[in-house]
Amino acid sequence: FKTIILVFWRFLEKAWNIGMNEPRKVIHCIKVGIALSFVSLFYYMKPLYEGVGGTAMWAVLTVVVVFEYTVGATLYKCLNRATGTFLAGFLAIGIHWIANQSGKRFEPIIMGASIFILASAATFSRFIPAVKARFDYGAMIFILTFTLVSISGYRVENLLNMAHERASTIIIGASLCVITSILIFPIWAGEELHKLVISNLEKQAESLDCCVAEYFSVTEDTKTNTKKMLAFKCVLNSKASEETMANFARWEPAHGNFNFQHPWKYYLKISASMRSCACCIESLTSCINQKDQASEFLRKQLSNTCQQVSSSTAEILKELALNMKTMRKSSRIDILIQEKNSAIQELETQLKEVSGLLIVPKGAKNDKEEEKPVVRTGNVIPMVEIIPAATFASLVIEIATRIEGVV
Amino acid sequence: FKTIILVFWRFLEKAWNIGMNEPRKVIHCIKVGIALSFVSLFYYMKPLYEGVGGTAMWAVLTVVVVFEYTVGATLYKCLNRATGTFLAGFLAIGIHWIANQSGKRFEPIIMGASIFILASAATFSRFIPAVKARFDYGAMIFILTFTLVSISGYRVENLLNMAHERASTIIIGASLCVITSILIFPIWAGEELHKLVISNLEKQAESLDCCVAEYFSVTEDTKTNTKKMLAFKCVLNSKASEETMANFARWEPAHGNFNFQHPWKYYLKISASMRSCACCIESLTSCINQKDQASEFLRKQLSNTCQQVSSSTAEILKELALNMKTMRKSSRIDILIQEKNSAIQELETQLKEVSGLLIVPKGAKNDKEEEKPVVRTGNVIPMVEIIPAATFASLVIEIATRIEGVV
User: Fold this and answer.
1) Helix B159-183 crosses helix B129-153 at what angle (to 10 degrees)?
2) A&B contacts, CB < 8 Å
3) What number is the ipTM of this complex?
4) pLDDT mean by block of 10 residues, chain A; 407 residues
5) What residues does B255 pair with on adjacent strands?
6) Are A266 and A194 in contact (CB under 8 A)?
7) Contact call for B33 and A119, based on CB within 8 A
8) How far apart are the CA of A359 and the nearest CA of chain B, in angstroms?
9) What SS3 state is found at B255?
10) In the 8-state DSSP scheme, what is residue B188?
11) Pairwise CB contact (< 8 Å): B155 & A382
12) Do A29 and B121 touch (CB under 8 A)?
């Protein structure tokens, strides 16, 4: 019994930590509570109850199902639900009318066949990528409403009246959700995406810096360093969440610094090129694990120039993050790119020099000692060269974004 | 108007292609149609209708919402829905009873407060990762049912009767879904995951082979080659879908070669180490783009041994895929690993030789020609060395899986 309490206590502790770290999640919960309490009012207050009737249930259902964490997701679900309901409702009433005209005998057959065909077709449409991205929820609601309306149409006679009641309650629920989610501490999917990409840029810059520093073992404090070094992993893992956010962001109206049709897909492009950079950093870390194999001498030789390349690259990433924050394109980026390019050139010339140096100690030292460093450093440098290249690509895209998206 | 038809036609064509390529998706659609038609029977047939009454709507709703592509997902939703409904129902009836005891005046207040608090708490619990992975849907249904029951309890007097009807229709709908999804061409999430991991292993093996072959330009047919080379990208991008599938697979009963508690998380580990391999391959491809910079001479020198390393590694991956297919651990893997290790050793000795060779032509040729190849090949080889290491890790995990999971 004691262990159960302990487990429960730990669970509460965890929940508390989540709540403290992200107060906006707590706010979201309170928002849901508020919206639901409002909807319950329809039931508690007599005049309202008589107005909308027993279908107030649909308003509750709408609120619970539709209310999501971000404004974009809520809007997406509301619009999908409304569209799906209306489309299915009209179609069901139309088919019901046709079935009615064709006599008592064929009515159940027509209705059954139409349910089967339309439900299958709508389910199939959910597998088509373009539909899935935007209307997945709508298709589900379409099936639901169509089936409900057509089977209850067979029984209930005052079909139009019912449809009207149901539609009005759904609209009440949906609008309540939209109002609550926009007015009370709104959480915009677009803004979240914006912040995520910026923080990823910063993390990547930091982790690049740390990796190179670690390789040339300038820093001592290994523990915090390893943590920073592995920061790039979030970049690798954030693909799915970025895509959903960009998907929801499309539904959001203009807010803050973002216009209605802010080019969200550029964010995805930036993160895609960041992911390819992160891959390179990942390979770089594996070099760090084997760094004892490289000769001390060579590491010292290349230390300065390598660090220059990586720091200038990191600088570019940071500057990009800053640019995105202020939504303005600064001229400093061009200067930084030039700096980075000259650093790479310097590194290349030094590499040549080093390979010249190698011949001299060759005879003096043993073979193994000499061969390894070439392989090692050879491994590090192309990496460092790849990263700026990829960064450059992301940079070009970024500039395009700023020009198209801001101003 | 013509363009609209054209767009529509293209859309149909696309849908047709999806249907032809993946007939199981079409089957799924038909299954949904069948389940819905069955549920409609409750409405159409008089005796059944009188038995369950107007709440048959809940059965329809359950079928539409719960029916998912894989068995695991359907089971997950069914169990969550049932648990959430019952828990919320009992809690709501309990609170209703308490509110009833405390008099007319406090009743609405108690009910409103309980809705607000419980809805907020349940919403918050959906943010906790452990809850989100397993009971996300259940929490939503909990909120829904609790609100519905407590607000309708305020009006409808025969609460218990209503609860009973609702519960029975939900159970009918859910069991119908489970039966249809298991009996008619079942699509198991676990099997899908299994297949995906196997095909990823094969793709990666192929793409590794192709990359190395391309680097030493043995093959000519570049177009199909590039396609194969980039096959590893699916490995990088499949994280999210693998996680959801593993999540659903946990809910599935024993089927085919899989036991009830098949160690699905090992699949995730294998793919994680495969992803780190894919990162290395990605870096390798960037070397291919710069391969003109390497000297012909050195490329030829290393060509054989490098290809041996990569082909033995690819062989291991293929053997692993085969092992997973047959669910049996073959002794061939150990032999292959030894082969791979000896190939790596050979490559290492050859590298030493090559670096020895380098000194001789050094004076004869110009500096630039000589320096580059070292860097280049230096880059390729550690890559090829990293991949077996990661493969080995995945292999060890794999063996553990086979032992624990298969007997």
Assistant:
1) 140
2) 218
3) 0.74
4) 83 79 82 80 60 64 81 86 86 82 77 83 81 82 82 64 75 83 81 82 77 65 64 75 81 73 73 72 64 59 70 74 71 69 69 52 32 41 48 51 44
5) B258
6) no
7) yes
8) 7
9) strand
10) -
11) no
12) yes
